Amino acid sequence: MFHIIVVLAAGERHGYAILREVEAVSGTRLGPTTLYRSLKQLLEAGLVTEAGEVGAADQRRRTYRLTAAGTRAGQAETRRLAALVEVARRRRALRSPSPRGAR
């Protein structure tokens, strides 16, 4: 869900655009079922809202946007992940392996 929040932080998107952008920014490929299940949970939690329809040509296409609560949740998760990365760095868990024979 964090991937979706990150994408929607840049502005309103419809489902297919969310799928494409999540993959572009994170390398994570979401399937439609995963996307719409996650969007439903985000909607129910009040973190995302439907922004309306993209066009009259396709009544099923909806756009989504973050709510203020969604923005706060995204900011909190960003801080949490940054702190976790910092712990990993201090513990040298993210140190790049050295080439063979190098010490």
Write a structural description.
- The chain has one domain (2-90): Winged helix-like DNA-binding domain superfamily/Winged helix DNA-binding domain (Arc Repressor Mutant, subunit A), CATH 1.10.10.
- Helix content is 53%, strand content 18%.
- The protein contains four helices and three strands; from the N terminus they run αβααββα.
- The protein has a three-stranded antiparallel beta sheet.
- It is elongated and about 55 Å long.
- The protein starts with a helix and ends in a 13-residue tail after the last helix.
- The model has no long low-confidence stretch (mean pLDDT 87).
**Helix coverage percent of residues?**
40-55%
Fraction in beta strands: 15-25%
CATH homology-level superfamily: Winged helix-like DNA-binding domain superfamily/Winged helix DNA-binding domain
Largest beta-sheet details: 3 strands, antiparallel
The top level CATH class name: Mainly Alpha
SSE topology string:
HEHHEEH
Give the mean pLDDT.
Answer: 87
CATH fold type: Arc Repressor Mutant, subunit A
Unreliably modeled segments: none
The number of helical runs is 4
Specify the overall morphology.
elongated
User: Within the largest sheet, what's the order of strands?
Assistant: 1-3-2
The separation of the N and C termini measures 41 Å
Q: How many E strands? A: 3
Rounded to an integer in angstroms, the radius of gyration calculated over CA atoms is 18 Å
Given the helix and strand composition, which structural class is it? Answer: alpha+beta
Number of domains: 1
Give the name of the CATH architecture: Orthogonal Bundle
